[in-house]
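Hey, can you fold this one?
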Amino acid sequence: MQTQSEYDAAALKARFNPEGSLLRRQQLIMLDMVTELDRICKKYHIQYFLYWGTLLGAVRHDGFIPWDDDLDVGVLRKDYKRLMKVLPEELPSHIALQCNDTDRNYFYFFAKLRHKNSFVDEDNYDRVFKERGIFIDIFPVDKTRRWIHNLSEPLHGHCFKILRTGKNDVVSMRQVRAITWFNRHVAFPVLRFLARITGGKTIMCDYGVPLRVGHDIKDILPTTTHVFEGKELSVPANSHAVLKRLYGDYMQLPDLSTVQSQHVLKLEIYD
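Sure. Predicted structure:
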C-alpha cells in the first residue's frame, strides 16, 4: 500500500485518466455539472457537500480519484426538497434533473444531474430511465436511527428484483412505479415520523438508499470548502471524521494492480 506522500500524482494521472482520455472527458463533464450545482446552491443558500469517493478524492487527490467515474454530493433533506424545486429553473440547457418528479420510471430515492450530450449504461437498471447521460448523484441525508433506516431497504429493494427477473419492462415498471409511489408517500413518511418520535440523531442517506454509514451532524455542518480540480467546492465541516467513518485509513491507496478505471458498461460522449 502507498500513502499520499509516497505516490506520484503525475504517474497516476498518466496511467488512469490522462488528458483526452474517455475517463478524463467524463470527469470534466461531471466537474461542469457540480460547478453548476455549486453556483445554484450558493444562489439559494443551500448547503451541499462532496460525499463518498468524491470527498475522498478531494482530500487525498485535490480532485477526482484518478480512476473514479462518478461524483457524489449530499444535501440535508429539508434543503434537498428546496433544491429539487429550483434546479429545473436554474440548470443550463445541456443538463437535466432526474428525479421521481421529472422521470416517471426513475425509482431511485436520490436525484441525478444528467448530461444530455452523452450516453452511459451504468448497471442495466437505468434502461427504463428517460435520461441516460453522464451523471452526478445528489443524495438527501437526514436524521434517523440505523434500525429504522434498515427497514426501508427491503421496501425499496423489491423494485430491483422485479426489474432483474421480469420478462417485460412495461409490466415490471407498472409494479415498480406502484411500489415507489407507496414508499414515497406512505411508508417512508411513516419511517420519518418514527425517527422523530424516537429521537433519531444519526445523519444517514435518506430511506431507500442502501448506504448505511452514519455521521454526527456536527461533522457535516456547517460546511467548509476544499480544492477540487482547481475549484473551491463544499465539503463537510470535519472531512477527516467523515472519511474515517467511511473508509478507515483513507489516505492509503488501494492495490493499484486491482484497480479498474471504468465501471460503467458503456459510455459515449457526443461532440
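The mean pLDDT is 94. Let me know if you want another pass with a different chain boundary.
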